[in-house]
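check this:
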Amino acid sequence: MSRIGKLPIAIPAGVTVTVSPENVVTVKGPKGELVQAVDPLISVSVEDGVCHVTRPNDEKEARSKHGLYRALIHNMVVGVSEGYKKVLELVGVGYRVELAQPNVLNFSLGYTHPIYMGLPKEIKVETKSERNQNPLVILESADKQLIGQVCAKIRSFRKPEPYKGKGIRFQGEVVRRKAGKSAGK
């Protein structure tokens, strides 16, 4: 039995979970509404403020999807009730970010050109640039998958390099450093 899949999902106050006959789960809460289609092998039931995800048999395909859909539904419940927040830090001399328009970021990362990135409307973005501090990009959303994908895309513009540690990283992330060339003998 899947350790993750068999755990019940507690539904907090103010959040409603509905399952349609086509096996589509809709979660509504104060932070928004999320929809997820569930494989027909997996059945989802909601009773007494608790959501259960079950599988009909122990075949390999059903076992592999059991924990997956339970985790996806749990992430949706947490997202619409509390939300997710990611903070990215730009480390490097002259690295800057600013909000060009609503949901359009303008990055200056040491290339010959600025990088503009449009963000989905489901994500709230904020930038901070304080003196003697690294610039920050703060992203908030109810959709964990979407915010992770956007963070990965932003990070891909300039990944942290191991010699000087320059690049875009998550706040609090530790970058393993290399020694580099040794000085003349």
